[in-house]
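Same chain as my last thread, 685 residues:
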Amino acid sequence: MLVLCEKPSVAKDFAAFFKASYKKGYYESPGAVIAYCVGHLYELLPPEGYDPKYKKWALEDLPIVPAPFAYRAIESVSDQAVTVLKLLQRHKGGDVLVATDAGREGELIARIAMLAAGIADISRFRRFWVSEALTPSVIEAGIKNAKPLAEYDSLAAQGFARQRADWLVGINLTRFMSAGSPPPPLAVGRVQTAVLASVAGRNSEVKNFEPAPYKKLEASFLSKDGVCVKAFLENPNTGKASFFLPDEPYLLSAMEYCKGKPIDSAAAISKEKIIKPPKLLNITGLQKEAFRRFGFKPEETLEIAQALYETHKCLSYPRTPSRVMGDSNVDLFLEKFSLLKLESSFSCFSDPSLISAGNKHIFNSAQLEDHHALIPLAKIPPSANEKERKIYSIVLESFFAVCMPDYAYNEKSLQFRVGAYLFSSTVREAIQKGWKEIFINGKDPEAGEEEEEVPLFDESSCSLSGLKTLQMLTKPSKEFAIDTLLAFMEHPKGEGGERKLAGLGTPATRAEIIRKLFAWQYLEERGKSLFATERGLFLLKALSKSEYLKKMADASHTTEWENSLAADPEAFQKEISEYVALCVKSGYERETFQQASLGSCPLCKRPVYESKFGYGCSGWKENPKCSFMIFKTVSGAAVSAADASLLLTGQKTKPKKFKAKGGRPFEASLSLEGGVVKFIFKGKE
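reply #2:
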């Protein structure tokens, strides 16, 4: 039997099960040969692979729609591709077990390898479909329950259609939009452009937001035990606690009437509720938490997690979308709990009795996708660096937190009536603090706002002890930061924020999508907030001029495509082919991107433009060459385009917080003298 795995670590688990010995690029035993890919071994040919004329970007050659699509081995893994190809060809008439990851991408990796090997008959091929940790018993059960590979043909078709659709969109629309503009290209992507549009839309929403004043009437109710609860006057027209200008007379009359008055009635509806500890982390959850705590970019977190998995072998496979373990992973979890409990101060608050197959908050095979959640597998070795220790500590904390006792509370919805006026409040009375007693603020970062927590409050014996009018202003949504953008990509919403859409990208690709948006100079960070750049806004404006192209900037349209892909992959690919043809052949008023100059170079007086790493002289490849540059990061502090403009006009920036080489923080302004950026300390250079 030939077993085809997606990655070396999985092949190693199968090799241990079959007692197979390592050969060059595969494992072999009397009963099995275990081949492994290294993720994708093949990629779609670039346009010039079909016809050399496509090496030159020409509008008249669009659309480029290969028929059929062809593949080539990825250069960096070409040796492994040859090994897998030979093993597949040798066993194509025998018993083959496809054991790539249990998901669309894993299916695609296997099918492309089979395509390269010229395999058409898959009648003897079976599919090993397991997302749990590969213990011997799990492997044995997975082999026993393997189904004919043909039952996964629809999933494979989706994988091919999605990959080819992304190629069609990226190749054709990037070439189309880039015509006439200076490099780098104006890249367009099926997902990345929708993400860019979402950031730009938030920027516009915040910039154009006009705060509206409103009032709230806050009442304090005091029980005979001295417990105070705050409640707010209910607006009879809206049922809410806010009063805008037309409704203010009602608030003023309530204020006047209720002073010194007794409560006519007080009612409470109580519900006992629980909040379980945060679930185990998937890669997106780890990336969000690493950014919140340490400011790590998503691709950096993924790279560190990959090193913990591959090099240090102390972390499970990181590119996972799942936040649960499999039903059969209880023993594995218990084993790691026992091994690592002395490594974390959190472990003493965990309850080992919660580590059972009945706890679906942790063990739920029905919710598994591709791989189980991130967990620590071993102690982190002394050779690990500081950043690796930080990422490991997040996963370790999550591992012990998930089996802490629930937070239980009594939720009380209170209503106080004074005359005709109704005051409402919702409070919590803690029954069991559980995991919330351990964590600072007792807050799940994924949860929303929570009700005020108070001791036991007796509404039957309380009195109105005070009234206060609060002057309020409506607030805009916050600008996206890396963590909130990841959260949005995971759970985007349609227009109006109500309709849920399919996720933008996958947990394994979101970091790369965000990285590309920075690399294409479409996004920039100011502090921790994300903003669309001049270049990004130009692309979106250009796309908006065409009824076809503007769909690329619509997250809801991306969702419609995902639904079409799932329903009929062949029709979806045809739809994408027709769509790109419409885009590149329709009438279009073309503009070329001309980046605005930030000022004149202090050395040669030529224009200074923003680039990937800084703000540099446009004469960097002219004669005579000028290498003037203001970098975007100086001693750990961000330098914005606005800062660069100030410096180029001889002004200094506002004070910024920097870090010296030894890590010591300091504060200073920046100035530019003789083409050199200098620090200004309280007026001194």
